[in-house]
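Lab channel / #folding
Pinned by the channel admin:
"Please post every new chain as: sequence first, then the structure tokens as a reply. Keep commentary short and put observations after the output so the thread stays searchable."

First post following the new format, from NK:
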Amino acid sequence: MRVVFDTNIFVSALTLPGGRADRAMRRIVDGSDHLIISRPIINELLGVLARKFRRDHEDLARVAVFLSDLGEIVETRRRLKVLADDADNRILECAVTGVAEAIVIGDRALLELGSYRDIRVLALRTYLEG
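Reply from TO:
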């Protein structure tokens, strides 16, 4: 399945080893699913890791390289204004551009959307059950 992870999934996977988000990342690593990611998502993640988790430049560079190697980076072409939070709109843009089948999230606003242009919006628990 072609999936986009919201930033919260990456943050949890990188800061809480062994949790649900870590299991989701393992599905990508083992090839069960195909990760679609964009530069705006990577940049947001790096900003969160720097601000909230005080990661240094070297660690941030490793994370950026890891995600770039792990997933397919897409260049979003069109800005969307579907939700109030611009970061959530960047997730939708990535999913649309990358022809994702699902968005896996830890964010209520996106979850309430349910789906967008035939792209399912799944809670992390639902994704792991599938």
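NK: The first helix runs from residue 7 to 15.
TO: also worth noting, The chain has a mean pLDDT of 94.
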